[in-house]
Amino acid sequence: MIYCGIDWAEKTHDVALVDDTGAVVAKRHITDDATGYKLLLELLAEHGDTEEAPIPVAIETSRGLLVAILRTGKRKVYAINPMAAARYRDRHSVSRKKSDPGDALVLANILRTDMHAHRPLPDDSDLGRAIAVLARAQQDSLWNRQQLANQLRSLLREYYPAVLEAVATWTNGLCRPETREVLKTAPTPTWAARLTRSQLQAALKRAGRKRGIEAEADRLRDIFRGDWAHQPPLVEEALGKQMLALLVQLEAPCTAADQLAEAVEEAFPRHPDAEILLSFPGLGTQLGARILAEIGDDRTRFADARGLKAYAGSSPVTRASGKKSSITRRWVKNDRLNHAGYLWAFSSLRASAGANDHYRRRREQGDWHAAAQRNLFNRMIGQLYHCLQHRALFDEQTAFPDRLAVAA
Fold first, then answer.
1. Do residues 109 and 162 both lie within one domain?
2. What is the mean pLDDT of each run of 10 residues along the chain (408 residues)?
3. What is the pTM of this model?
4. Residues 40-44: contacts with CB under 8 Å, at least 24 apart
5. Do residues 80 and 196 both lie within one domain?
6. 212 torsion bin: left (phi>0), alpha (psi -120 to 50), beta (else)
């Protein structure tokens, strides 16, 4: 059997092929373009790569055009963690030397000796992978938006606290179009105090507000004309210019998050698993798409529910050495899935009486809020694995029978 290892780089790649004995049967240096991909496929075919018996490939990335080309057909592609590859490198050389052709050889030998210990890339559908792209991009946009909003809030506290007071009652206050339009109209508190009722109404209309414009304009006008402390005029003007520059940066993730959310709303319901995911309490379109993006739709990816729970970081991990042992939460996990899991557990408390009872019971047993949420997420994702495997919708009585027993 032949094994292939590819040391990935930005412009060129090194390829190494080894046989069962570890002997190098071929080496090649290819470019990162269509010509290089064609040479790679010809090299694999020359050494026995066929549709029925493809050569497995190890590479240190799971993304990009090269990986997309390799995943065509039934070929198994193994994305090896660079840290794991570095540990394997020490098995072949104690001098700690490193080279790109040598790394390709190390990756090929990883498959030759320990292929059973590594997991190939899941065979997800094209629709599932497209939803993963959109859901992750939308999540990144929200994170970027929140980071910039925090910077804007910190800056406004230095010279413009009236705006923070004005948007305190609005959901996503600093990220709302009304807030951004008001800040463009009056970048400093001195300007804001001079705004008339008609100017504020015009700003709210430009932001897309349809209802309660007059009352909201009167409220903003009263706040802006209140008794607030001020920076020196020159300093205040400079801070206003800094705020406008930061506001331009905030516009981009706000627009991107809205557009990507619409794309997710359009793509996610078309997936066969969408109905099952949406049947769970606390999961909507956006959060359900994030869950699907991380677990995929390849039913053979996880051998059982325990594997999925470990991947999500919801199940505890035991560390034992001699007479000492400790049970702690997992640090190595899928951070995106773990983040979505906390949101899922929190939102399910109101949507499911059984989930709420489970959370309350864990708190009464001494768990902190985060630990109780993690335990609830661990139970919910195990139920999700069962429902996806058996193509069944969520059922409250089956999921939380303890609640019925207590009631009885």
1. no
2. 90 92 90 92 90 91 90 90 86 76 90 90 92 95 94 94 90 89 93 92 91 91 92 94 95 94 96 95 95 93 91 88 82 91 94 92 93 94 95 91 62
3. 0.86
4. 40/6, 40/13, 40/15, 40/66, 40/69, 40/70, 41/69, 43/15, 43/17, 44/4, 44/17
5. no
6. left
